[in-house]
Amino acid sequence: MKKILLSIAGFDPSSGAGLVLDLKVFQKLNFHGMGILTSLTVQNTKDVKKVHCISSDIIWNQYKALQEDVSFSGVKVGMLGCKSNIQVVNKILSENKDIPKVVDPVFKSSSGTWLLEKEAIHRCITKISGKASLLTPNREEANLISGIKIKNAEDMKEAAKQIFSLTNIPCLIKGFNIKSIVIDVLFDGKKFHQFENKKIKKKVHGTGCFLSSSILSFMAKGNSLEESCSLASKLTYQAMSKAIQLGQGQQIISFFLEED
Fold first, then answer.
1. Distance, C-alpha 223 to centroid of its chain
2. Separation CA 72–CA 70 (nearest Å)
3. For residues 77 and 63, what is the distance between their CA atoms, to the nearest angstrom?
4. CB neighbour class for 76 (10 Å; exposed up to 12, middle 13-18, buried from 19)
5. Are 50 and 76 in contact (CB under 8 A)?
6. SS3 of 5, please?
7. How far is CA 145 from the centre of its chain?
8. Average pLDDT value for the chain
9. Given a cut of 80, is residue 189 above it in pLDDT?
10. What is the chain's percent helix, strand, coil content, to nearest 5?
11. What is the DSSP letter of 244?
């Protein structure tokens, strides 16, 4: 029987990020993806114009309907949409203790729209403490969580270590540019691991969603955390390198979903 991965995330009408992209990645990596919607966005490839948050009751009802019918092999959490959804997502994570869980702390869009209230960030991080297998913040998100302004690779390590101390969750800080290289740094609670790819000179939508859902998929296949991050980092680079221009804004990951 095919394994099932669950994404808890927002809806992007361009299909370039969020729940839709997660489900496509799960399918391509040979899982059946199921989804719980946390929020609806009004956006295109250029920017996010508006966010409508789904109520926590509806989120819980979506989860219970699925949970009473199927078993999950992994859970990925992305955009929550509003602070009222923190508790219900925390409850879902608590109910799924023995499977891999990847949390991508989506706080703000690349165009500057807040996707979770800034004052709720500390509460969000506190609530999920110890309840996930990995956190995958980008540089700005890591700065908001740790209070460390990341200017170099050593700052990435310090921030990842600080986030682990706050959450008791391994932390992968992604996407720091150093000249012609992009670095992801993982702190697993004991050691640092660094993953490098060549810098791609174009703006691509949804890379954080792609990376986190890929990591979860590789973990659900039985790979270690380090192996999963390494494989997902390489796969994300490949997907970005062949992203396509569909609108007037950022490019969209597409090749990966069409080619075998």
1. 18
2. 7
3. 13
4. buried
5. no
6. strand
7. 15
8. 92
9. yes
10. 40, 25, 35
11. B
Rounded to an integer, what distance in angstroms lies between the CA atom of residue 77 and that of residue 213? 9
Could you give the CA distance from residue 254 to residue 252 in angstroms, rounded to a whole number?
6
**pTM recorded for the entire structure:** 0.95
Q: How many residues does the chain have?
A: 260
> Which backbone phi and psi does 218 adopt, to 5 degrees?
-65, -35
Q: Is 113 exposed, middle or buried (CB count within 10 Å of its CB: 0-12, 13-18, 19+)?
A: middle
DSSP string, 86-146: HHHHHHHHHH-TTS-EEE----B-TTS-BSS-GGGHHHHHHHTTTS-SEE--BHHHHHHHH
Q: What is the pLDDT of residue 42?
A: 94
Q: What are the tokens at 176?
A: 């720091």
Contact 51, 113 (CB under 8 A): yes
Residue listed under structure tokens 């590789």:
218
Residue type at 27?
Q
What mean pLDDT comes out for the span 224-248?
Answer: 93
Q: How far is CA 91 from CA 60, 191, 233, 253, in A?
A: 9, 29, 29, 32
Locate 150 and state its tokens: 């990341």
Q: What is the DSSP letter of 148?
A: P
Residue pLDDT, tens place only, 125-156: 999 999 999 999 999 999 999 999 999 889 99
pLDDT digits (tens, 9 = 90+) for 79-119: 999 999 999 999 999 999 999 999 999 998 877 788 888 89
* Token digits of residue 61: 């009802």
214 C-beta neighbours (distance < 10 Å), count: 27
Between helix 207-220 and helix 225-241 the angle, nearest 10°, is 140
pLDDT-derived band at 260 (thresholds 50, 70, 90) equals: very low
